[in-house]
Amino acid sequence: MRLFKTVLEMSAFSKKARLNGKSIGLVPTMGYLHEGHLSLVKASIDSSDLTVVSIFVNPVQFGKNEDLAKYPRNMKRDLALLKKAGVDVVFAPEVSEMYPNGYITYVSPQGGLEGLLEGEIRPGHFRGVMTVVAKLLNITEPDKAFFGQKDAQQCLIIKKLVRDLNFKAEILILPTVREADGLAKSSRNSYLDAKERVTAPAIYKALQIAQQMINLGERNPAVVIAGMRRLIGCEKNIKIEYAVITDPETLQPVSSIDGRVLALVAARVGKTRLIDNILIDRKVGSHHRRKNAKTHV
Questions:
Q1: Burial class (CB within 10 angstroms; exposed 0-12, middle 13-18, buried 19+) of 72
Q2: Which residue in 34, 37, 125, 287 is the catalytic one?
Q3: Is residue 297 part of a domain?
Q4: Is position 34 annotated as part of the catalytic site?
Q5: Are 156 and 238 part of one and the same domain?
Q6: To bridge 141 with a disulfide, which of 14, 110, 132, 262 should be the other Cys (CB 3.0-4.6 Å)?
């Protein structure tokens, strides 16, 4: 496994690989790797000749009062995990390499997505995300780039970035990897103390409640959201920032649940901010079959 810390080294490697007919898979990360990251790595290894994993805690996507300084880091552990997984290259630049003195160019989303949900709570966040992803795609020139469904809004914005700026990479979104109790894997889970860790799975349980209500025939999103909020409200150390039912392609609220929707929750468990979501396909037939079965008994 090779470790590159400069844009020049990484770019030269990618250009040579492409000249030799090799396909490249990219897994962008901020390090402190967990099984969710490693599932993306495996997908890349399985479908690409070469796999590049970037490790870069991107300061541009953190707000003034966010956790940039204390964001968990363990490069030695990360490199050991990636070497064991069979990764070909790790790209781990310093901030000064990605944003040298005089840097002035940023990529900003427009059209509404940047001000919804995460964008509303974390102004400027997606400007930072889009900028660093654009840079990583340019530097590594991947055929495919892999992201996790947990960051659903980020995934949607990155897909639009690739389409709008004509990047050649295919963006692949993989399912959220969870702990045994349903808590979505996240580097920030390391912030949770023992009591908070016990209550944090209520976020996923709320999403499951939404799925159950919709599968049983509930079409009113307000009723489903109320059910989600009631469940999370039972936990005193969890504060909801948003709990919504949206269109998966626009993240706009839906007035009625017909077909596929995306349920999303952001909440603070103690001082730790966590997000999660699930895609839900309304099973129209299942509810009617149960009603009809009772009629014929």
A1: middle
A2: 37
A3: no
A4: no
A5: no
A6: 14
